[in-house]
Specification:
Elements (H helix, E strand, L loop, with lengths): L2 H34 L9
């Protein structure tokens, strides 16, 4: 097993998790806007 390869995989996984967290946050905001708004997905804050 190549230790450097494993380390890079772990770092890539952490970056991926950051992207997933960001995507989930955006989806959550979009869903809230759709529910609170008129259903068109536009935000009327």
């Amino acid at each position: 097993m190549n230790i450097i390869k494993v380390t890079q995989d772990v770092e890539n996984q952490e970056d991926f998790n950051d992207w997933v967290d960001l995507a989930l946050e955006l989806l959550k905001r979009f869903a809230e806007n759709a529910i609170m708004g008129d259903g068109s997905g536009s935000s009327r804050n």
